[in-house]
Amino acid sequence: MPELPEVETIRRQLQRVLAGQTIKKVDRLHPKSFLGSPSKVAGRKIVAIKRKAKTIWVDLEGDLNLLIHLKMTGQLVYLPASASPQALQAGKHTRVVFTLTKGRLIFNDMRLFGWIKAVDNDWLKKHFAKLPPDVVDKAFTVKYLDKILLSSNRAVKLVLLDQAKLGGVGNIYVNDALFCAAINPQTPAKKVKRISQLHRCLIKVINRGIKYGGSTAKDENYVNAYGKRGNYQTKFLVYEQAGKTCKRCGGTIKKIKLGGRGTYFCPSCQK
Questions:
Q1: Which of 44, 54, 104, 157 is catalytic?
Q2: Among 6, 48, 74, 133, which one is least packed by beta carbons within 10 Å?
Q3: What is the value of pTM for the model shown?
Q4: pLDDT digits over 198-221, tens only?
Q5: Is 51 annotated as catalytic?
């Protein structure tokens, strides 16, 4: 599933090309993928592209917004008017097509878990009020992190993945952040000692993921708004590194299952 760095990469790219354009038409090719009235969206000018946690938020002219979650296999790809006629055609997994004043925005989703919702400002405000801070928000302080860890006896990795407690961190980046902080992912959250170090590492790893355009790991189909793969997979610290030598202590990276997710760590230096 695309995490905060992947979603933020797409947001920044779409902000550059979509802001100021008008949505001329919306083609809903699968009813599950677009919730709301396409006719209400058509004719609206795009004010800005924003993000909250793993969700893209398209601010439209008037009291209307598009909330987009890519889930497991969603892709949001921009095709300029100069693209070839063949490229502009809907593909096998294309679910929604936005025809714009200068091209098209294509929503692909192989497994149909992703969605686009047309919602008004009041709905959006209430929805966002329920969400915790993102890892890159000012509200995500050492004190806040300490509070959510002290409140749970679950494994620290599972607490950090809980989107009700912290927004935007997924499996790839939490593995690398825990390695960065030299914390075993199985450690009960309330027993974690290096809170300040973990706080710094979470922010550092997320920003590093953004720097490299997100990650297209093995068996994942993430592409950015231009249809290109991410590059963070070439910078993994421990994720997908099982059996390889630890870059810090020379130990061997191990893979286990934790909460049903592949979990990578160095038993020698993550204690």
A1: 54
A2: 48
A3: 0.95
A4: 999 999 999 999 999 999 987 678
A5: no
